[in-house]
Design a protein that fits this description.
Largest sheet: 8 strands, mixed
Number of domains: 1
Oligomer: single chain
Strand order of the largest sheet: 1-2-10-7-14-5-4-3
Structural class: alpha+beta
Distance between the termini: 34 Å
Order of helices and strands: HEHHEHHEHEHHEEEEEEHEEEEEEH
CATH topology: Jelly Rolls
Number of strands: 16
Strand content: 15-25%
Length: about 350
């Protein structure tokens, strides 16, 4: 199961100690979001909001506990995700991702190569040399008049569509609350972002990392998912117990494990929120590596890993430009959300 209630308290304390005592001073704090959700005054809300923004300024990443999404909800999504990826490849291929403007459908192993580069030729060379060892299923808002989700047959994965659509809405609702905390933490009005994110132009990504012999991952630049930053406002990441996510310490360039903490969600700043804040908030590089176990005296294999990422975006017609209170001179020119995200996706996929 994704969560193990019996070890939650012990694990939470262990992880707090681990990150607080990192040699470089880099840490990913655990923030109790119930204090924001149940606050009786603006002052109480702002206390948590300042914690969130402070962490986003320094590391760009937080663990969020007491976020309001039930454990059984997350577990159900993980089960349905696993059922989807167990389908035959030829069945999944019928749902193949086709267009960066849609960003919906099944992505086979090796098709995506995440990287900070925006050069198509360079990304193509990276993909040939060191493809990402993962497959994914991309889901967007289901009411879009132009772009449609690609759903498996109900008989192939019973309840899949219903489960994912409900979870999409649940994640959007949390995203709204998190962005309200960001607004307050930046001394903006709490509802500053509400009308800029209400069209739900997000992407729910189901991720499956199949077992791979470690020898195939030892080449230069090879990883389950290469070092990259995310594109939008905030990413909500739900991890299983395997781990593998690593976050780069911006001060030292060293990658630090973001070890799974039961009951929490990892949330990080994306590129557009960093641009919006004039880099007051940090979009931090991260990657997925491959924990390995011995299968013989000479060979190791990586275990199966699952994760679920909710990539939150501004409305596609939103122009991202320097926010009030984030510096007198803008570091970036204004950019349209859709043009930015579609451009990054077009370069990332073949």
């Amino acid at each position: 199961m994704f969560f193990r209630a019996s070890v939650r308290v012990h694990s939470l304390r262990l992880q707090k100690r681990r990150f607080a005592s990192a040699a470089s001073g880099f840490r990913i704090p655990v923030i109790n979001f119930s204090k924001f959700r149940a606050a009786q005054s603006d002052a109480e809300k702002k206390e948590t909001a300042k914690e969130v923004v402070s962490a986003f300024k320094h590391s760009g990443f937080i663990y969020v506990s007491n976020h309001g999404i039930p454990e059984n909800t997350v577990s159900a999504v993980f089960r349905k995700s696993a059922e989807f990826f167990k389908m035959p490849d030829k069945v999944k291929a019928q749902l193949a991702w086709e267009d960066p403007r849609s960003n919906r459908g099944y992505v086979q192993i090796g098709r995506e190569r995440v990287t900070q580069s925006t050069d198509v030729a360079e990304i193509s060379a990276l993909r040939e040399k060191a493809p990402d060892c993962k497959e994914s299923m991309e889901i967007g808002r289901d009411w879009d008049s132009e772009w449609k989700n690609q759903w498996p047959k109900e008989s192939d994965v019973p309840g899949f569509q219903k489960t994912m659509l409900e979870f999409f809405q649940t994640c959007h609702d949390l995203h709204v609350e998190m962005m309200r905390s960001v607004a307050l933490g930046l001394d903006l009005s709490e509802d500053f972002f509400d009308r800029k994110i209400d069209q739900q132009c997000h992407n729910l990504r189901l991720l499956s990392y199949p077992p791979v012999k470690r020898v195939f991952l030892d080449g230069k630049g090879q990883a389950r998912a290469g070092a990259h930053s995310d594109y939008g406002t905030l990413t909500l990441l739900f991890q299983d117990s395997v781990g593998g996510l690593e976050v780069m310490d911006p001060q030292t360039g060293v990658f630090v494990p973001a070890t799974p903490i039961p009951g929490t969600i990892v949330i990080n700043v994306g590129d557009l929120l960093a641009r919006w804040s004039n880099d007051v908030l940090r979009s931090t590089l991260h990657r997925v590596v491959a924990p390995a176990k011995m299968i013989s005296s000479t060979e190791t294999i990586t275990p199966v890993r699952q994760s679920i990422a909710f990539f939150s975006n501004p409305n596609f017609d939103t122009v991202i430009e320097c926010l009030p209170n984030c510096g007198k001179e803008a570091r970036y020119p204004p950019v349209n959300t859709e043009n930015y995200i579609v451009g990054r996706l077009a370069a990332t996929y073949m």
